Amino acid sequence: MNGSGGSAIALRGATVRFGDHVIWEKLDLDVAPGRCLAILGPNGAGKSTLLKVLLGLLPLSAGTITIDGRPPGHGSAEAGYVAQQRVFDPDLPIRGRDLVQFGVDGQRLGLPRTRARQVDPVIEAVGAQSYADVPIGLLSGGQQQRLRIAQALAGGPRLLLCDEPLLSLDPAAQEEIVAVIDRHRREHGTTVVYVTHEITPIADVVDQVLYVAAGRWAAGSPDTVLTTQSLSALYGTHIDVIRVHGHIVIVGGDGAGACTHADDAGPAGQVRDRHDGHAGHSPEGQQH
Amino acid sequence: MGLGFLLQQPFAQHALLAAALVAVSCGLIGPFVVTRGMAFAVHGTAELAFTGAAAGLLVANNPVVGALIGSVVVAGLIALFGARQSERDSAIGVILAFGMGIGVLLLGFYHGFATAATNILFGNIFGVSGDQLIVLLVIGVIVVAVMGIWYRPLLFASVDPDAAGARGVPVRGLGLLFLVVLALTVTGAAQVVGTLLVLSLAITPAAAAQRLSASPLIVAGLSIVFAVVAADGGLLASFQSNVKASVFITSVSFAIYVVARLTGPLLRDRRRSRHQGHFPRQEATALRPTAELPGTPVAAASSEDGGGLGDPAIRPRASGR
To answer: Are A109 and B149 inside 8 Å of each other by CB?
Structure first.
C-alpha cells in the first residue's frame, strides 16, 4: 500500500468484474482530504459502480480501497450521497425536513420522527430554512437539490458523493448547487466527488479528474486529463477536446460511440487498457 | 330493532370488531400504497384472494386460509415478474388475468354453497365467525408489528430509493416485505368488504389524508382514523337499513375523500403563505448571486433570497447554454 496515508480516498489496483466482464481494473487513485474529484465517462463505463464501491455497497473483485484510511462501511454515514434530482409527486406526504432527517437515521428501524436539533443546522447551511416545511413535491428542482444536499450532510460525512446532482436542473440552479456544495467543502474540509456527464458546470471547482471509458481509465488534473491527446489514447480513437468560453466540449471520432454527449470531460494522466498487451499509452502519464 | 339491542348481538359485535381490525391495517399501509403507486397491486391481490379462497374451499373447505396462502404466493409472483417499477403493473395484470381464470375453474369443481364464493367478492361482514375474527386479529398484529419495526426505512425507500440504497437500506427486500404485508392486509379486508371493495379502505382514506397534511406521521394517523370511521361508521349505518354494509362503507370512505379534496387546497395555501409567501418553482429566477464575503458565517449566508452563491471568485462561470 504505497503511501495511501492521509488520503481521503485511496484505491490500489482496484478492480471490479461481474463474471468475466471487467468493469474497470487496476485502478489507482488518491484524493487528498478537502479536494474535489470529478468522475467522468460515458454511460455504462462504470461510474456508478465506482460510486457503489466508495459507498461500501459493492466489494472490489481485487485490490483495496480505503476511505480516510479505513475500508468503507456498508452504507456508512461517513459518506453522504446526493442523487440526481427527480420529480417528486406534488402530493407526496413528505416535507423537506423529513427528507433531511432521513440523512440522520433513515436506515434505522422504528417510526420516523423529525428532530429540529439534528436537521436545522444543515437546512440552514444550504439556505433552505424558508421552505423546509413545504411538501417536497411543491418545490423547484433547485430547492429539492438543496434539501438533498442537506440530507447528505446531515450525517456529518467526511466525504460527499454527488451522483449526477445537476442533471435536469437549469443552468442557474446548477450554478447555485455547485456553489452550495463547494462552500461546504471549503468551510468543513469535506472531500467531494462528482459523478457526472458534464464537466462544464463544475469545471471551476474540480481539482482532480478520473475518466473511465471502455474498461480503461485516466486520472490527473483536469488540464492534463481533458486533452485531445489523452482522451484519444483512452478511447483508442480520435477525440477532440475543445474549450470554448469556459465550456469543455468533447467530440467523438467516427463510430467511436464514445462521446454521444457533447459535453464531457476526458482524462489524460495515465491511461491503461483493460486487456493486457493493448495498454494505452499515456501521453503525459503521471504515476502515483 | 333498536341500535342498542343490535349492538348486544354477537354477530354485530364481531362485525364491528372485524371492520375495525381490517381498517387499522388498511389505514396503516394506505399511505405507502399511495406513495409507492401500488393501487393496482391492491386491486390485483384482492381479486386473486378469490382464487385462493376458491382453492381453499375446494381443498379444505376453508376459504380464509386458502386466500391467505394465495395472497403470499401472489405477492411473491408480483415481486418476481414485476421487479422493475415500470413493469410491475403489467406483471400484475398478467398474473391477475390468469389467476382469475384458475379461480373460475376451481369454482366449477366446487359443489358447496355458491354464496361462500360470492361472499368473497362482495364481503360478508355479518358472517364473521369467532375463528375468522382470530385470523383477522393475527393478521392485524402482524401488519402493525412489521410496519412498526420497518416504518422508517420503508418510508425512506418509498420516497427516495436512490438515497436509501446509498445508506444501506435494503430497498428491494423492503419492497418484497411490503408486498407480503399488503397481500395479507388486503386478503383480510376482502373478508369484510369483499375483494371488489378493498380499495375503499386501502387507498381512499390514505389518499384523503395526503390532501390534508404533508407530515408522514399525521398522514398515517389520519389515514387510520378515516379507515376506521368509514368501516365502522358504514357498518353502524347499515344496521339501520336493509342495504349491504359494503355500500355504506364505500360511501362514507368516498365522502371523506371528497371533503378532503375540497379542504386540502385551502390548508395547503395557508401552509404556503405561512412560510413567508414563498413561491416555489420560481426560485431560480429569484436567485441572484449575492456578493457574499468569504468567511461569512454559514447561517448568515442562508438569507431570504435563497442563499448566497458563495465567494464570487469561486463561482462557476455562467454557462449560457
So the answer is: yes
Global pTM exceeds 0.90: no
Give the 3-state DSSP-derived string for B190-217, with helices as H, strands as E and coil as C. Answer: HHHHCHHHCHHHHCHHHHHHHHHCCCHH
Q: Give the whole-angstrom CA distance, residue A123 versus residue A131.
A: 10
Query: How many residues in total does chain A contain?
Result: 288
C-alpha cell at B19: 371492520
Q: Which of B155, B136, B193 is nearest to B21 (CA)?
A: B136
Q: Which CATH architecture has domain B10-203+214-221?
A: Orthogonal Bundle (1.10)
Backbone angles phi, psi at A219, to 5 degrees: -135, 150
Q: Please answer whether residues A113 and B156 qualify as being in contact, where contact means their C-beta atoms are separated by less than 8 angstroms.
A: no
Across the interface, whether the CB atoms of B216 and A93 are under 8 A apart is answered yes
When mean pLDDT is compared over A222-226, B107-111, B216-220, the highest value belongs to: B216-220
Q: Provide mean pLDDT across the span A227-236.
A: 81
- Where in B24-117 does DSSP place strands (E)? none
Compute the C-alpha angle A206/A207/A209, nearest 5°.
80
pLDDT in tens, B153-163: 999 999 988 88
Q: Are strands A159-163 and A191-195 parallel, antiparallel or unpaired?
A: parallel
ipTM: 0.79
Q: Provide the grid cell at A50.
A: 465506482
- Chain B residues lying within 8 Å of A187, measured CB to CB: 298
Q: Please report, for residues B51, B94, B122, B188, B282, the alpha-carbon distance to residue B101 in angstroms, rounded to integers and kept in the order given.
A: 8, 11, 18, 22, 52
Distance CA A201, CA A77 (A): 27
The cell numbers describing B312, all together, are 464570487
Within the 220-239 window of chain A, which residues sit less than 8 Å (CB to CB) from chain B? none
Instruction: Report domain extents, chain B.
Output: 10-203+214-221
CB pairs A-B closer than 8 Å: 218
As to burial, measured by CB atoms within 10 angstroms (0-12 exposed, 13-18 middle, 19+ buried), residue B169 is: buried
Query: What are the sequence ranges of the domains in chain A?
Result: 89-156
